[in-house]
Write a structure and sequence with these properties.
Layout lengths: L1 E5 L17 H13 L4 E5 L4 H12 L4 E6 L13 E4 L20 H8 L2 E3 L2 H11 L5 E3 L9 H6 L6 E8 L2 E4 L3 E3 L4 E3 L20 E4 L8 E3 L9 E2 L6 E20 L8 E5 L2 E5 L6 E19 L17 E10 L16 E14 L8 H11 L6 E7 L8 H11 L5 E6 L4 H9 L3 E3 L9 H8 L4 E4 L13 E4 L1 E6 L11 E6 L1 H17 L1 H19 L1 H14 L4
Parallel strand pairs: 1-2, 1-3, 3-4, 5-6, 19-20, 19-22, 20-21, 22-23, 23-24
Antiparallel strand pairs: 7-19, 8-21, 9-10, 11-18, 12-14, 13-18, 14-17, 14-18, 15-16, 15-17, 25-26
Helix pairs in contact: 6-10, 9-11, 11-12
């Protein structure tokens, strides 16, 4: 047998498209390959194009049994393929789309799945939904991503892995640590001792790289806090103390150039600009003007902070924003660096995290409304408001930090005061770093409204990490009180994700915040006072995944579906 495997996102694009629609299908395809290779040859294709069609025809004409496994939503899979097509899709709602939305009948998954004649999904919940909507005899099997077999080494370490941590985690990507910031209910600003890029090492403060930053468009290597989105020419500020986080530490003798203008009461007003121990004053004008300064920064810093701004100007219905200054450009030239020495990317240097106490990790796309990261953060901060021996790591699977950083900071201000630690990890991390993150985690946290299977939860539990999670949708197959602290949830109206009208035609599940709060408290108590129960939960976690996503459990289901193709 020959299995062609297709996903819209491939090896060359996954890092840049992390968090895009359907990005997780790439990881499912990669996990499926070893299982498929037990039955035949696999070929990963980048597109369902003429090259693939010609190759498939040749193999079929030579008498070879071919299948196309399309890891994609059914409405995105082409119909005309010269071999049986098996949609492999995740689904987490109470019904599948049963109508066309504009003029394409394939918008209806009932129509598309009936055309293909068979399908694979990743949970008994999704399998039952499809059969409820199409018919009880529809050829579909629940075959989640076969992940369990991949984690034998970390699973073997589980009995000796302490729930209370004392270790250092090294990550080669951008990291935001709440302990690096002064937080209050009004604002969040860098603490005075911070002197490193967000992905950087505190020992690398001697290096000062040349910077020339335009603020008219999103720049993934420069983060703006207290500013509105870019507008082409630059960006307006919206708070009295906005700041910029640079990709390089500034130190020594530098030339600083700032291009900005002022709004309302800020025109001609003294505005302070601070880098490290150096503070200069300028008076913004109505038009964008450049201001140049010679500085000797003896306290290295990678933050440019603005102070003394006035946001009290009268706002209109047309533009209700609180505007103070408009920032167009910042250039910093080091007198000790070669003119061509540019700042490194944020993910080119290491960041070391010293972790002590109970560590909670959640891996999610902050722009995915199902993931409910706000509840994860608020319940954590409320549960551990007065505890310093806990850390919540939010590993964000999204390629643009500016798309969520402001929301995280705003929530931290609302939650102030708290002593617990929050660490945001941004960007793609290596396999070794991911394994180290698993080993550093006491509990994996999920508070989703629905899941197609939840790969991070499955991976962590396969390694023996107990969970905090609801038991709705796919999680019902493997989450229980033996291996997790269960978060209650209840049905809530919602719409199919690709419905442009967003009509409430289906259900997802609203987690109960109080039980999430209690799960944090109960899990902390177990980690600190009941190591025997923690170890029982750890073993139950990997045993549940063995039954759910091991090759031994899944191979017969895959063979069963293949045997039905062409016989219906």
């Amino acid at each position: 047998m020959l299995f062609y495997c297709y996903s819209e996102i491939g090896d060359s694009t996954i890092e840049s498209r992390l968090g895009d629609a359907d990005y997780s299908y790439y990881f499912v395809l990669k996990a499926y390959l070893p299982l498929l290779e037990k039955l035949g040859e696999t070929r990963v294709i980048e597109a369902i194009d003429e090259g693939f069609l010609a190759d498939c025809r040749r193999e079929t004409e030579n008498g070879r049994q071919c299948y196309l496994l399309a890891f994609a939503p059914p409405h995105k899979i082409p119909f005309e393929v010269p071999c049986p097509t098996i949609p492999v899709f995740a689904w987490e709602y109470s019904s599948i789309p049963n109508r066309e939305f504009i003029s394409d009948p394939q918008d209806s998954w009932c129509y598309a799945l009936e055309h293909f004649g068979q399908a694979l999904t990743h949970s008994s919940y999704a399998m039952n939904v499809v059969r409820n909507d199409i018919g009880p005899d529809y050829p579909i099997e629940s075959v989640p991503a076969p992940l369990w077999d991949n984690w034998a080494t970390l699973r073997a370490e589980a009995p000796s892995r302490a729930p209370v941590k004392d270790l250092t985690l090294t990550l080669g990507t951008a990291v935001i640590d709440s302990r690096d910031f002064a937080i209050n209910s009004e604002s969040i600003a860098p603490a005075s001792q911070v002197a490193r890029p967000p992905g950087g090492n505190t020992g690398d403060t001697e290096s000062c790289h040349n910077l020339d930053i335009e603020f008219g468009e999103m720049n993934p290597d420069v983060w703006m806090v207290g500013f509105y989105p870019p507008e082409g020419w630059g960006a307006w500020s919206k708070t009295t103390s906005p700041w910029i986080m640079l990709p390089s530490v500034v130190s020594g003798e530098v030339r600083l150039v700032i291009a900005l203008n002022g709004h309302a009461g800020n025109i001609g007003k003294d505005i302070q600009v601070q880098i490290g121990d150096q503070c200069v004053t300028l008076q913004p004008q109505l038009e964008i003007s450049e201001y140049e300064f010679e500085l000797n920064v003896t306290q290295p810093s990678n933050f440019v902070m603005f102070k003394g701004l006035d946001t009290t100007a009268e706002r209109s219905i047309v533009d209700p924003r609180t505007i103070a200054i408009g920032l167009a450009r910042i250039a910093i030239e080091s007198k000790s660096s070669p003119p061509t020495e540019a700042a490194p990317k944020l993910n080119t240097v290491e960041h070391k995290l010293k972790l002590n106490g109970v560590v909670y990790t959640s891996i999610l796309n902050p722009r995915d409304g199902r993931k409910n990261w706000e509840d994860i953060l608020t319940a954590y901060c409320q549960a551990f408001q007065d505890r310093e021996d806990v850390t919540l790591i939010l590993k964000m699977t999204y390629n643009d930090m500016s798309g969520y950083l402001e929301d995280v900071f705003a929530l931290l201000c609302q939650l102030h005061p708290f002593k617990c630690r929050i660490v945001v990890v941004h960007g793609y991390i290596s396999g070794a770093e991911y394994r180290a993150l698993i080993s550093a985690t006491s509990y994996i946290v999920n508070a989703s409204r629905s899941e197609g299977q939840c790969l991070p939860l499955m991976e962590y539990m396969s390694c023996g990490v107990p969970a905090i999670t609801p038991d709705n949708t796919a999680m019902a197959d493997y989450a229980n009180t033996d291996n997790a602290f269960i978060v209650d949830s209840s049905p809530e109206p919602h719409y199919w994700p690709h419905d442009p009208q967003q009509v409430f035609t289906t259900l997802w599940y609203r987690p109960n915040w109080e039980t999430l709060f209690e799960a944090y408290q109960d899990s902390y108590k177990v980690a600190n006072t009941d190591p025997e129960r923690y170890q029982r939960m750890s073993r139950a976690a990997w045993e549940s995944q063995q039954a759910f996503c091991s090759s031994e459990a899944l191979l017969p289901r895959l063979q069963s579906l293949l045997s039905r193709i062409g016989k219906e």
